Amino acid sequence: MDSDQHALKSHCEVCESMLTMMGTIKEHCRWRTTRPGDILDRQMKMTMKAQGRKLDVMQYISPFITLIRQPLFQFVLVIMGILAWYSVISQLIGLPSYGKATFRYLRIEGLEKDDHIASFETMHKGCRSNNSNGSSAVGFEYLKITDLDGFVLTLELNASRPATVSFKLLASLTGADGSWFTAGSSTFRHSSSGVRFLDSAAARQRGAMTFDYRPPLPWYADHILHDLIFGTGCILTGACGALNLPAAGRGVFLSTCAALTLLVVAAAAGVGPGLAEEGRDPRHRVDRRVRVHELPPGAAFLLY
């Protein structure tokens, strides 16, 4: 009798378990039929966004992926990219007038009394020209209004003169007092806004001394190519974050850092035809801008 009751009780427990399982399956089927097919994917995305809103980068395995999902961070990246592109476009627009001066009268100031000019020729776009009527009371007078972006100066040899020479080239359209402006000097620097003429002395050279104010190759690398790479990288990284492609955004970010680092190293080492000679001429230098984002690619892994 006891064995029959025990068997009946076991049978009832199995039936209850089966009914419970069938009820669970029925509820799950009902839930699935009333939900979209991608409900699980949607819930996973909502969970990831909820994690991203906390901004506790030390809480997650990949802080950069958490950061790149933030709309504010994406917005800042895009704005930085647009500003870099604006800088590139504005410098390209101003490139034809970079280092150029328009004049009709020229004079050189600052030379010692014993320094005599053997020859003087202006340069425009790398070509020499000598359309001067000769010396006048105000300096060199030219036949018409002329442009220059450099000049070639030759001083007479004098063994007693010092090893350095310092002067400034002044230009004017009318030759009147107060109309003169600096169009050249013995030393200068290439900056993003134009040529900066300095008051320091340059080494005296035998023969002709050429002063070319056109932007050299390091200037293009530092002001055009650098901003182009940086702006493109920022915009693409922000776009990847907005499109929920954090892995692609991380790859773009690291590639941008690597490209910028290689560009900085190449410009500093003088890699490329003419880069070493133009960037290391003791009479002129290229002003380099200090940028926070000029970091080795290894630093990018801090946000990996």
| General shape | rod-shaped
Low-confidence stretches: 51-60, 271-280, 295-303
Quaternary: single chain
SSE order, one letter for each helix or strand: HHHHEEEEEEEEEEEEEHHHEH
Report helical residue fraction: 40-55%
Total count of helical runs of at least 4 residues: 8
Structural class: alpha+beta
Radius of gyration, in Å, reads 36 Å
Global mean pLDDT = 75
Q: Which range does the strand content fall in?
A: 15-25%
> How are the strands of the largest sheet arranged?
4-5-1-8-9
Number of beta-strand segments: 14
The total number of structural domains is 3
Task: Summarize the biggest pleated sheet.
Answer: 5 strands, antiparallel
Distance between the termini: 71 Å
Molecular structure report:
With 304 residues, the protein is α+β, with helices and mostly antiparallel strands. The protein folds into three domains: 2-34; 51-93 and 218-303, no CATH class; 99-214, no CATH class. The protein contains eight helices and 14 strands. The chain has helices spanning 2-33, 39-54, 63-68, 71-93, 217-242, 246-269, 275-279, 297-300, and strands at 101-109, 117-124, 127-129, 132-135, 140-148, 150-155, 164-165, 168-172, 181-185, 187-190, 195-198, 202-203, 208-212, 284-286. It has a five-stranded antiparallel sheet, with no helix packed on it. β2 and β3 form a beta hairpin. α4 packs antiparallel against α5 (217-242) and α5 runs antiparallel to α6 (246-269). The chain crosses the membrane at residues 72-95, 224-245, 251-275. Keywords: Membrane, Transmembrane, Transmembrane helix.
